[in-house]
Amino acid sequence: MATTNRGWVLESYPLGDDFDAALKLRERPMPEPGPGQMLVRSQYLSLDPANRGWMIMPTYIPQVPLGDTMWGFVLGRVERSNVPGFAPGDLVSGFGAWADYCLIGAEMANKLPDLAGLPLYAAQSLFGLSGGTAYVGVIDIAKAKVGDVFVVSGAAGSVGSLVGQIAKLKGCTVVGIAGSPEKCAWLTAELGFDHAIDYLREDIDARLTALCPNGVDAYFDNVGGPITNTIAKHMALKGRIVLCGSMAKFSNPGPELDLGPILLNRVTITGFILIDHFDRLDAANADLAKWLAEGKIKHKADIVDGLENTVTAFRKLFTPGAPHMGKLLVRIDPTAN
Ligand SMILES: NC(=O)c1ccc[n+]([C@@H]2O[C@H](COP(=O)([O-])OP(=O)(O)OC[C@H]3O[C@@H](n4cnc5c(N)ncnc54)[C@H](OP(=O)(O)O)[C@@H]3O)[C@@H](O)[C@H]2O)c1
Known about the structure:
6-stranded parallel sheet; binds NADP nicotinamide-adenine-dinucleotide phosphate; globular; single chain
């Protein structure tokens, strides 16, 4: 086995989206698993908008310290294990690092759900964080129901694309907001969204007025900023807004949300983070697998090959209109399916 390990080291905190200056691909000694840890060989790295938040400030986890290999979710194979229940060769998903090999602690590791012949990446593109966030957000937090007009922003991304499909399954009329004609065509032609609005080329305000004359019953917010400010003005009486993410805060968030229409329409806004709902993941995975088998839901992975391309791929998440649909993953092991 190799004695050194390549990984992206956080050497300075990024200014704006200058990730190239902040993260450097370095070779370091292979880490040794301590008690309660395992050494995992990465198959896929999951690239998530939250990674950027972890670099720049304490969130629901502490800020990543300078000098650490960048933290991230990993799909990998156990090489050596000091964790009961995990043996060399097992597939695992967990909180690891942007590296060829990483340590994963027992409390941060999950066995994969039964993939039943699906490619390994489905553990991230359908199940896990993306599917769990979409499922809990739509069903438990937005409480989507038959007849609702349901709007989702960041609709062509990993969470948003599942959100819209689950809302359709719950009987809603679904409008997706995304940043290119290709993304909008994917949402309506392939995923069954009723409508899609290209926010970089169309007037969201005018389109919502035409598409949702009785207002928006539920809004799943992945982006915040100007898009959310516009949608908030279209909320129906007693509408629900689920705050899931705020992509716009990284660039130009614009003015604060006008709470006037929220008050007048008695709208409920709920902030939601999946870590409070891990007890729902088994139900989410079971329903998502069933819907997939029944042909009622689709998932997509946007796979970039090679650890060395991680930072370039990461930038796509923060580039409105970039060619990225579904779950962004970096394939580390070229033989991974
Ligand atoms: N609360 C939770 O527990 C939880 C869990 C997972 C994810 N999240 C959040 O969910 C959101 C989506 O995550 P994801 O992994 O599915 O990412 P993603 O949607 O696959 O990728 C991010 C997308 O955001 C859009 N975007 C980028 N910059 C933007 C801006 N300034 N304004 C508007 N849109 C912008 C881009 O799509 P377009 O080109 O279409 O604009 C980009 O492709 C993120 O905010 C993430 O932090 C929250």
